[in-house]
Every structure is written in structure tokens, then in C-alpha cells.
Amino acid sequence: MSTPIALAFETRRKSGVVWRAVEHQHTVSTRKIVDTRDEQELLEEILEASKPHYPTGTESLHYLLKTPFRHYPPYPYGSRFRRINSREGVFYASEHIRTALAEFSSYRVRFFEASPQTPLPRKDLLTTVFSVKYATRHCLDLTLPPFVKNRSRWVHPTDYSATQDFADQARAAKADVLRYESVRDSAGGVNVALLNPKAFALNAPVDHHVWILYIAATEINCIRTGLLGNEERWTFER
Question: Is the Cβ–Cβ distance between 17 and 131 less than 8 Å?
């Protein structure tokens, strides 16, 4: 593994617009379990108080941008560039909408596979896909030399040990952004991981869409809503 000093010499300028898919943001799930709006607002306040605090430096950011720096990574393995006990957040996004949907769909499927006896939902799942703009002078690109020679270490579908080690070294080298190959998008998508909220060029999303996901036994269908005539859609194999 390279030293932080050596990695610092490999950083480069990088900017662009990237996409992230999340659960639909205009569906308030707590409203259905209370009787009045006042009760719902009180319940939301209680839930908010139970969550981790937003880290320093994210105060001006839209909640969709700063939330990934608030919550801890999932058990038992963490995420690709974040250890299970790390307090350092990561904002994961993709350079193409298709890749963002492939990543999100993969984790939705894993959610249901974790409970094999639970039937798949026989309904559409609404998903918000939004874009953000980033800019940094300190990006490490794993798709380019010298890092691409270790590609097999970066693209393992379940073992994140090598990428988590790399992220630790990248943070020590003051890198803000990692660019890397998507494991979930078979069409060759590319992702970015923002290690520092300072890498956001704007403090709010640039654009957003609503997509419908339908998870079937053999495939996942993704269709963008709000379009007349030419529907945008993607299908991923399970």
C-alpha cells in the first residue's frame, strides 16, 4: 500500500455532476401511524433527536448531501470506503443515472435477500434520483495508473478490506474524492466517493427525478416518471 505522501503526489483536479438514488423523499411514512399532523410532527422530532448529529462543516448543506456523513455504515462489513466503526462519512454517487440505479437496486435486493422468507413487494417502489456538483484539487482515480493495476482489489463484490485500507491512506493524504469502477453496473459504470463534504461545489442538489422500481424474481425494472411519450427505463438482471 502506498504511503500518504506518495498518494498525495497522485491526486489531481476533478469536477463534475454525479447522481445518487435514495428512497423517495416526498413520502412521509410516519403520517400513517398517527391520527393528527401535530402528532406526526412530534413523532418526527423524537425520531430526529434519536439520530446521530450532523458533523461539523455540513451546516449549510442540503439534507440530501449531508445525511451520508451523519449515519454509520451498515453492519457487519461497513461500506466500500468506510469501516464499520468509522465516524468519517462518505457520499457515494455515480457518473450516470443508470449506474446510480444499478447501485441502489442492488442494495434493495440485498435488503430483501437478508430475510428469505419475506415475499418481494408486489408493488412499485418510488425512488428519488438527484444530482450534485463537486469540485476538488485532490482526487484519486482508481481507474487510472498507477492504481488500475490493482483493479482486482478494488472491485471485489463483498470484501471491502482493500478499499477501506485505501480510503484510510487517502484521507491521510488529504484526498477529498475517490473515482472508481462500479461493481454493480455491468455496463461499465463509474462511481465517485466524496470523503469530505468540502468537495461539494454547490450546497444543494442540481436536479432530481422520480423513478419507479419494481423488483421481480429475475430482474429489476426502473422507469422514470413524469415523461410524456419517450419513457426512460432500465432493466437489471437479479
Answer: yes
